[in-house]
Amino acid sequence: MSKTKYIFVSGGVISGVGKGTITASLSRLLENHGYKVSPIKVDMYLNVDAGTIRPQEHGEVFVLDDGLECDQDLGNYERFLNKSLSRSNYMTSGAVYYSVINKERAFQYEGEDVETIPHVTDEIIERIQAAGQKDRADIVIVELGGTVGEYQNGVFFEANRLMKMKNPTDVLHIHVAYLITPPSLGEMKTKPVQQSVKTLNSMGIQPDYIVTRSEQDLDEPRRKKISLFCNVQTKAVISSPDIDSIYKVPDVLAKQKMDAQILEKLNLPARKNAKNKQIRQQWHDFVENIDRAKNSEPVKIGVIGKYFKIGAFSLSDVYISVIEALKHAGWHHQKDIELIWIDGEEIEAGHTDKLTEIKGMIVPGGFGTRGIEGIIQAIQFARKNNIPYLGLCYGMQLATIEFARHVAGLKNATTAEINSRATHPVIHIMPEQEKKLLKQDYGGTMRLGAYPAKLKKGSLAHKTYGQTKISERHRHRYEFNNKYRKKLEKSGLVFSGTSPDNRIMEIIELPNHPFFIATQFHPELKSRPLAPHPLFREFIKNCI
User: Fold this and answer.
1) How many CB atoms lie within 10 A of CB 483?
2) Are 72 and 318 in contact (CB under 8 A)?
3) What CA dihedral angle connects 238, 239, 242 and 245, to 10 degrees?
4) Which of 132, 210, 261, 297 is geometrically suited to a Cys-Cys bond with 4, CB 3.0 to 4.6 A?
5) What is the pLDDT of residues 463-480, one digit of tens each?
6) Do 182 and 314 reside in the same domain of the chain?
7) 290 inside domain
8) Residues 166 and 224 in one domain
9) For residues 501 and 378, is the Cβ–Cβ distance under 8 A?
10) What's the total number of domains in the chain?
11) What are the residues whose beta carbons fall under 8 Å from the beta carbon of 89, sequence distance 6 or more?
């Protein structure tokens, strides 16, 4: 295998500038040339992983097959690359320091003073290199979280500098920075980008490429100004304006020959063969479907949840994988999707008008008690009014509670998560999870990652998947209480998916309904633009 190449991606001016999309898009483009790419996301917080962070604080917690709870950017990487990643593709400051401290306690530094440099930087570099080795990657792309100049991410930039210093021809740096257009001036200003690059220079790093994010396309005078003051070639200033779909960003970069430039700079030949051409054509056809869908009448899907608001703002990032899975399914049917956000607390307050507008209902995952009675009321509305329903994790548990209360006659049915002394805890804590909670063991201790399940022949789940054995990703502590299985089955609820040992109920469905299915797992985590998840695909088909 040839020597692995490394690309670092940093951000400047504002947070949320789009580093993850640029990293994912560039990964897609380089794989189109036949190179194997391993993307890595670096988060600066001291949490060991993303599992204990509030969704409102950091967006969705994405879960990998191996059970790692990580940043939602890993979801973007998987969607763009159409493949599953592992825990080696993610690191946090907490994980790095945790490893260094454990090594020190085990006397692996043989009595040396353990310092940020070189021991922490060495740990970072080892992890980056190990990810490339594990994936047998030609190119490793490292997205540095945060914004350049922040105190907490400096050690990762230092690791970047050291790698570049030791292997100058094998390491590139891409800086993604935002060009502001103040409304009072009506003119795009380059000075914040210049200052951002100056901060990067002060850390010993000169970017090879600058990707400018902005509302409008970058014009030539400003491209030349950035080139002059930031010391990069004019062609290496890449414009990435706002666009109606992130899946079009690879084309935006390719039209400016960014992928070809990078391969040339890394001394890698551009590979052209039938397989690569086919991959590019698949992506091209997919993007064309996005445009066709825009001309259709949108399908209104109600998302009934609870993690929408923080302060005066609503955060769709909390459910980003659900949103993307819905889009993938809609585009598959050449239909646009219009999301109707409905907070469970709104329904509890009597604001149910939105429920009559929607053509389908999704209840995504969640935890806790807030807004739960409103969500159960919404599920009852979907069941009684033949509205296609897809429940995900908590959406499966709450659908079970709704059925138990209003069909099976278990009036006080609920989940032990809300009431540990409930008369009818149709949802209860998994025994192994109860032990962990008693020890206040919260981080990375839920039922996490991919687990197999078997499907009941002839069921809606079986027909949708087209097979009887599946593997899906989980993230939960609570499960269906098998004590109530016979009672609910007798009342008409179908348990169409279970764990191979028949102990954990994985899927429920209603036979006398256009489409009513709910899963204990999270199918949204495995949906891809080129391969929409079958449950979402069939859900949207029925909504149409």
Assistant:
1) 11
2) no
3) -50
4) 132
5) 999 999 999 999 988 899
6) no
7) no
8) yes
9) no
10) 2
11) 38, 39, 40, 41, 64, 74, 77, 131, 135
| DSSP H/E element including 540 | helix 534-543
> Which residue do the tokens 């009672």 mark?
487
Residues 39 and 79 sit within 8 Å (Cβ to Cβ): no
Q: Is 524 a catalytic residue?
A: yes
Query: pLDDT tens, 115-136?
Result: 999 999 999 999 999 999 999 9
Evaluate whether residue 464 is within a structural domain.
yes
Tokens 């970017």 identify what position? 207
The reply to whether 57 belongs to the active site is: no
**Least confident interval from 229-243, 325-339, 408-422:** 408-422
pLDDT, position 432: 66
pLDDT of residue 309: 54
The single residue of 70, 230, 393, 543 carrying the catalytic annotation is 393
CB 41 within 8 A of CB 89: yes
Task: State how far the Cα of 476 lies from the Cα of 496, in Å rounded to an integer.
Answer: 19
Catalytic, out of 69, 78, 509, 524: 524
Residue 126 tokens, joined: 């080892």
Residue 393 annotated to the active site? yes
Q: How confident is the model at residue 437 (pLDDT cuts 50, 70, 90)?
A: low
Options 424, 428, 522, 533, the catalytic residue: 522
